[in-house]
Structure formats: C-alpha cells, structure tokens
C-alpha cells in the first residue's frame, strides 16, 4: 500500500484523495502550513502555482526522497493570455530544480476535478497524463490512479510538462469562455 | 459559397477536402509547385512544416488578402522530443510574420485525418480548434467545417497556436508510442 499525502484541500485535492482512497491507499490531507509533517511516499501539491514556492521553502527537506506531484497550471490569471513560467520550461521543471532530491512528476493538471470524480467525460474514461524522469515514480502514481478506477498514461519525460501545461492552459481558457464545461475538457481517446 | 484551395494532397489535405466538399463548397487541390495559381478564398497549406517556407517564397503574392490556414505540427521528427520553432512562438506565428497581407489561421493540427473522416472519436464529435487574429476569417473557416459535419471551436487569438501546437506535439508523441491510435486522440468534450 502506498501512502499518499495531499497538501491542499481544494476541489482538486479532494478529487485526488477520493481516487487514492477508492484504490485502498492511505490518504493524509495536510494544510499548507508546515506544522504537520508529510509522511506519504507520494506527496501531491494540490495547491495553486503561486503557493508552490512557499511549500518548497518550508517543506523542502521533508520532501527529499519522495515522489512529489505538481498539478498546477501556471497561468497569468489576470489576463488568461499567457503562462507565468518560461516558455521553454514548466512549473514542474521549476519544481524539479528546487527539489533535486525528490522525484518530481507532472500529473492531474489536464483533468478538471469533476472528471476525476465522474471517472469519465463525454462517455470516455478519464485519463491522467503523467510526465516525469523517474520511471518507478511514474509507475507508482499510475498504479494509485488505476486502482482508484481512473486511467493513467505515461506522457513521457518531465520535459513534456511544457506540453501538459499548454494543454491545461488551453483547456482553462476554453472553460472560462464557456466553450466547454467543467465536467468536460480534453478526453484521451485511445 | 466559399472556395477552398488546398495545397498538398496527403491524408490531411484529402480529409479537409472531403469536409469542404461535404458542406457544398468548391474545392481546388493544387500541388506544391507554384505553376497552378490558387483561386480560393481560404487556402489550406496541407503540407508538412518544412514545406511551408517554399510555398511562402513561391506563392506569397498570390496569398495576399486570403485566409491562409496552417495545419502543421513543427516537430523535430528525428528526436520526437521537441519542436523546431521558438518555444514562445509557433509555426503559425512564423507564417503570419511571413505573410503580413494574409489572414493566417491555425487549425486542424490537433486532428488526425481519420477523425476528420469519421467525424467522431470514441463517440465524441470531432472538433477542429481554430486560432487566429481575424474574427471574420475564423468564422469563415468554422462555417466551412461545420457545414461539412464537423464541430469547430474558436480557440482564441493566433498566439494560442503555441498551445495548439503543444497539443499536436503531445498527441503525436503518444501515437508513435502506441498509447493512442490514429483513429483516436484528444477529443473535446463540451
């Protein structure tokens, strides 16, 4: 059994917690302040991008050796017209640079919370796209996702987080313009 | 009736021609050499990215005033690990710079040819995502696509071509790794 720690209790954190619980894994939800240590093998940073730097600063040592999952979409939420990370990089790349002793994965940023709960969108099974440079860590997270009844696909190296964040960005811009609903999005049809 | 000229007769060119024909529009398919002029209101460059520069050089003057549709995915097809355009730009952005008198759109690059023919993937209607800075040109192309029985969604300004090309890139890497088939891909669930 893999223990999954989730930092953040918003709609994404709750949806990811539900998947891990459904798969029989132990889930620990901790607040953003660092007073409660994280004990999980996998730690999901279920917080908005601007909150990640503070978590790194406060919990960097705690996260060493762990699989750390970045779910953020680093949009400029004032303009909804650009990302706030370097165009050739990604929030996940930044996180990996900041946590060199952790196994950083990008995942869940292309899924809206409702489609994680529903396990489908438009009749297509929900798929979590996972990017990362550590094959074992990716497999570990994919196992947790699949045990919870949701599909998981290895999207490649952590450098593919640039593309996953572009997908997340595009999807959010379409949703805020009401061209798709929060129960929809981009579904991966195999 | 809109006349649609398609430069290139590969599987994408044929699929786009079939949509336009199904919608009752006149379609003209011309080869990559410039001996045959293009007469359409919309000109689709249904060629691989490396062929675009030659078309611009030979047909730039012919394309003035027209709606020009870029469908390319500018991957490094040697490595399948990066794009060959600047990370903050796109092939469509390059084309717009090269053809300042044309109305350049990005479209079709997130659709595999089979899903344009089938008009669905995994039971979800196929959607063509269209980005561009000229609202009338986007509407004109969307009308042609919809008349042919395929959905069309305005994905925003031409700057969103960066994200559309990231989607196309990701989708191609998943297909070549056999994580999805050429009859599948990312389906837009409204």
TrEMBL record, chains A, B:
Domain Pyrroline-5-carboxylate reductase catalytic N-terminal: 38-74
Organism of provenance: Agromyces protaetiae
InterPro entries: NAD(P)-bd_dom_sf, P5C_Rdtase_cat_N, STEAP_metalloreductase
Keywords: Oxidoreductase
Origin organism lineage: Bacteria, Bacillati, Actinomycetota, Actinomycetes, Micrococcales
Name by which UniProt lists this protein: Diguanylate cyclase
């Amino acid at each position: 059994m893999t223990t999954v720690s989730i930092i953040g209790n918003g709609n994404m954190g709750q949806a990811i917690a539900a998947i891990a619980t459904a798969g029989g894994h132990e889930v620990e939800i901790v607040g953003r302040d660092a007073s409660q240590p994280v004990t999980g093998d996998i730690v999901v940073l279920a917080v908005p991008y601007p909150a990640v730097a503070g978590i790194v600063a406060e919990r960097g040592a705690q996260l060493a050796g762990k699989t750390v999952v970045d779910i953020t979409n680093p949009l400029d939420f004032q303009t909804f017209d650009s990302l706030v990370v370097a165009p050739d990089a990604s929030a996940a790349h930044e996180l990996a640079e900041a946590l060199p002793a952790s196994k950083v994965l990008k995942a869940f940023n292309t899924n809206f919370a409702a489609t994680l709960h529903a396990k489908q969108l438009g009749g297509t099974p929900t798929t979590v796209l996972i990017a990362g440079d550590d094959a074992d860590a990716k497999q570990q997270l994919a196992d947790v996702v699949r045990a919870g009844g949701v599909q998981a696909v290895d999207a490649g190296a952590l450098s593919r987080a640039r593309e996953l964040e572009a997908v997340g960005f595009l999807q959010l811009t379409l949703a805020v313009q009401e061209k798709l609903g929060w129960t929809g999005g981009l579904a991966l049809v195999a």
